[in-house]
Amino acid sequence: MRTDTVYKKAFNRAASMLRDGQLAGELPSENELRRRMCVSRTTVRKVLRELVHRDLITERDGLRATGRAVNDNDYYPDAETTPRAKHVEQQFMEWMLRGDTRPGTSINELELARQFGVATNGIREFLIRFSRFGLIEKRPNIGWLFKGFTEEFALELFEIRVMFELRSAHLFSQQPDHSPLWIKLAALKLAHTELLEQIETRFHDFSSLDNQFHRLINEASPNRFIDDFYDIISFIFHYHYQWNKKDEKQRNKAALLEHIGYIDALQSRNSARIAKACRTHLASAKATLMRSLIALEE
Amino acid sequence: MRTDTVYKKAFNRAASMLRDGQLAGELPSENELRRRMCVSRTTVRKVLRELVHRDLITERDGLRATGRAVNDNDYYPDAETTPRAKHVEQQFMEWMLRGDTRPGTSINELELARQFGVATNGIREFLIRFSRFGLIEKRPNIGWLFKGFTEEFALELFEIRVMFELRSAHLFSQQPDHSPLWIKLAALKLAHTELLEQIETRFHDFSSLDNQFHRLINEASPNRFIDDFYDIISFIFHYHYQWNKKDEKQRNKAALLEHIGYIDALQSRNSARIAKACRTHLASAKATLMRSLIALEE
DNA sequence: AGCATGAACTTTATCCATAAAAAACAACTT
DNA sequence: AAGTTGTTTTTTATGGATAAAGTTCATGCT
After folding, report:
1. What is the pLDDT of residues B212-232, one digit of tens each?
2. Are strands B143-146 and B136-139 parallel, antiparallel or unpaired?
């Protein structure tokens, strides 16, 4: 059966809105709620029904108003708000990164399905999606081959990344003065310096900034293939960092400084300087990834 | 139920081998046949059983020998030798390229499933695989968006293609003299000149040569992401040419000449000359694609 | 021991079923 | 007419079943 994670997530969202007082007094219409929560009206109605049922809101003469205060245990647990497909992704990445999965291993859909507690269909869909990351390969009628999260992989990944980023950074710097992206860039620079000041406590926030920055650079001259490639990068780094916490603060601090240098270079519009800053930053990102891959191979 | 296309294809293959006399006299062991036909022994045995049943081979004391002559209607029809997934691909491409499918259309899994006569699962798997081509996009819980086989698509595609090909051609030219790829390149050049002489009748063969050539260039310094990207190119061109036959001979002749110039440039190892030949060729490939896209939009 | 066949077992490709979520339709209300 | 809510229809996400194809185990023959 399809999971009701959409509903549960929406319910939690609504509960938070009630708690924060965003929905104080008389509630907005179903359509308005639908827009705010980005789900269908069908789901909104389901949420409202449950809210009424739990007395979190009251309904009289077709008018809805806030009810009793929201309690911590009114919320559905987080695990129930993520769709199966996402769980499969997480479990697979865990299996791949933490397990002793060696390059050349073959991947068995049925086995993973049993291990993860889902139907084979879900596994297969995930693997098809995941195959674009270049880490697995399908052999028809036989199964999937795990090619390994190896040094070679990282080298190939970064070769492309450098090509793309140099191209995007160059085009970014050639934008007209009045492009709104310059403003965004300045804002991002500020966010960087702020984070740098509070690096001791907030170093986890770097990841989001990193993403925003690299995506911004691509925005100047969009290319869907470059965007898609950056999805791979994000994905890999997301899980990689989840797994490798070593020196995180130190690494993020260094990267922040590199970003700032890179932003300065962009603002200078000096091609050679931009290329240099870009290469420096990517080289250190690559070195970080490579170091942990070597750790993996032990 | 799973289709028995593997068996049917293997059967046809075996029938052809019998007909060509490749299996004259006493037949090889099941294992040997398995190796030659690239299927499992289970399938080989199924084929053998049917061959015996039809008297195409005889079996006595566990020894198998050729039987009656193979007839044209011993073969299974071609359509039955292609798996469902491939059919879906073909039908989808037909739907996309020939139908009046406009950019922005949303794709309905259920509708396509009904139209193509397959389960929704098959459609969905295809769409996931196909999504890497940048022509469709998934919106969770809602469906797929067809972004259109547009001019913009072609521009983005070729921007990447040029970057990758310049990089690969450059690295190719820097290989040591004794690299076996130089021999392959010379052989390919010969194949080009031969085809050029017989262009009037054999112009369809260009497609295969084109593929071999571009893949060869990538071989010098392999990168899985570049290979994957070239899969997109091949796929697009495969279907595109199937649909657009206009001026095919003329176009292929021109491309052959460009290839030859490009090969000469590579052999000269002169960077500037290589880049020029590469750009020239890709520019004309791009122009061809663009012309037919414009035709599509009418 | 090494290879051939036979039989049993496992995994993939494919279809079908169904609850959840989205969308479309209908009837009201202001 | 535009925005509400109630109802019905359609579509997606997910589980389950099964024949085909692949793999492994067992037996027998040189």
Report:
1. 999 999 999 999 999 999 999
2. antiparallel
Rounded Cα gap, residues B81 and B142, in angstroms = 34
Averaged pLDDT of chain A? 95
CA distance A59 to B98: 54
Q: Please indicate if any CB of chain A lies within 8 Å of the CB of B86.
A: no
Tell me what pLDDT residue A215 has.
96
What are the C-alpha distances in Å from A76 to residues A5, A15, A73, B285? Answer: 10, 10, 8, 55
Answer whether A124 sits within 8 Å of B125, measured CB to CB.
Answer: yes
**Amino acid, single-letter form, for residue B247:** D
pLDDT band at A231 (very low <50, low <70, confident <90, very high): very high
Cβ contact (<8 Å) for A141 and B6?
A: yes
Distance from C-alpha of B17 to C-alpha of A109, rounded to nearest angstrom: 35
Contact A228 B157 (CB under 8 A): no
Nucleotides of D under 7 A from a protein CB: 3-8, 10-24
Is residue A155 scored above 80 in pLDDT?
yes
Cβ distance B223 to A156 less than 8 Å, yes or no, reads yes
- Residue B296's pLDDT is 67
Kindly tell me if the per-residue pLDDT of B170 is higher than 70: yes
Closest by Cβ to B134, choosing from A83, A157, A225: A225
Q: A272 or B248, which is more confident?
A: A272
Between chain A and chain B, the number of residue pairs with CB atoms below 8 A apart is 46
Distances from the Cα of B11 to the Cα of B40, B75, B87, angstroms: 13, 8, 20
pLDDT, residue B23, reads: 86
Those residues whose C-beta lies under 8 Å from the C-beta of residue A253, and which sit 6 or more positions away, are: A196, A199, A203
Map out the domains of chain B with their CATH numbers. Answer: 5-79 (1.10.10.10), 84-146 (1.10.10.10), 151-296 (1.20.120.530)
Chain B CB within 8 Å of residue A157 CB: yes
pLDDT, average across residues B176-195: 97
Rounded CA-CA distance B19/B16 in Å is 5
Per-residue pLDDT at A294? 77
Strands B63-66 and B57-60: antiparallel
Which positions in strand C are less than 7 Å from the protein's CB atoms? 3-8, 10-24
Nearby residues of A28 by Cβ (< 8 Å), 6 or more positions away: A36
- If you average pLDDT over every residue of chain B, what do you get? 94
Q: Are strands A106-107 and B63-66 parallel, antiparallel or unpaired?
A: unpaired
Whether the predicted pLDDT of B116 surpasses 80: yes
Q: What is the DSSP letter of B66?
A: E
pLDDT of the residue at A298 = 58
